[in-house]
Every structure is written in C-alpha cells, then in structure tokens.
Design brief:
mainly alpha; 7 helices; 0% strand
Amino acid sequence: MKRIFLILLGVFLILQFFPVARTNPPVTSEIQTTPEIKEVLKRSCYDCHSNETIWPKYSYIFPASLLISHHVEEGREELNFSEFGLLAERKQNKKIYEVWEQVDEGEMPPKDYLLLHPSAKLSDKEKEILKVWADLNNKESE
C-alpha cells in the first residue's frame, strides 16, 4: 500500500512539471455595452469568456490546471467578450440573447465555478438587467 502511494505521489509530482497553456491573448474588439452590464459580465463571465482570465493559484496544479485550461478554452470558443465586436451585429444580438437564456436556465455561471467564486453569483436584480439587455438587443435584430 505504501509503495502504491509513493508511486502515485511521484506521478503527481512529475505531472506538475508539464505546464498547461494559461494564456490571455490581446483584447481585439471588446463588447460595447453600458458600464452596469459590463461590470456584471466582468465579475461573472470574463474568467471563461474573455481574454482577461484571472488564473487562480490552483490553476497551476495538476489536475486542476488541465480542467480549468480546457474550460476556459471551450468558453472562449463559444463566446469571447474580448472579440465580440468582430461578430456581425445580428450574431452579436443572438449571442446576447443566448447569454440570457443560459442565465435564465441556471446554466451560467456554472455551479462548480460558483463554489470557488461566490462573488460571481448573479443577484435577481442583475438577472433582470441582463434580461432587459437581451430583450432590447433581440428586438433590434428583428
């Protein structure tokens, strides 16, 4: 049993020497919105959906490094507020409405993210602000 533990510990320590990409590419065309909405997005969404990720200390420890890096990569691929202005206006409006749908369904911010980042939890008032924003942009695209 002791030998297995030492082998697993050795593997764990060796894996720490294989870094995972934790990048923050330049912001090319950030979303243009009101300061109130921007504050909500920055606090609750930007870590996974922008090029302004704040990489916590635990994101440097395997296996968390692998999971977090992958999560951010997927988040940026789906929606990146740092490149939002590069999208056509119709696509922007669609993405804004999708943001609201994810919030309304309780999918965003993810519950596992909120465990370590409780300040990202959206209040009812913030949810209402996002709903009004989404409705306004949805009407503009019609």
